[in-house]
Prior knowledge:
Number of strands: 0
Radius of gyration: 25 Å
Helix content: over 70%
Shape: elongated
Strand content: under 5%
Number of helices: 3
Distance between the termini: 75 Å
Amino acid sequence: MAQAPAQSDAQARAEETRERDETLSRREKENRPDDKAKQHLDRKLDEALEESFPGSDPVSISQPAPSAPDKDQT
């Protein structure tokens, strides 16, 4: 009879874990970029790589913040 409460606790923890995993999976799917946007980004990165070759710096996926002198000019 002592096993019933322990088993209930284990089942409750398993259910909580399953629900948490489903919620995380749902959020990942919602935040995933759609295929067209990903393909567009991939094409842009490939184009930038081709235009910069042979270069020593890799293509950056983000634009760096402007430097202090650049901010003064805007």
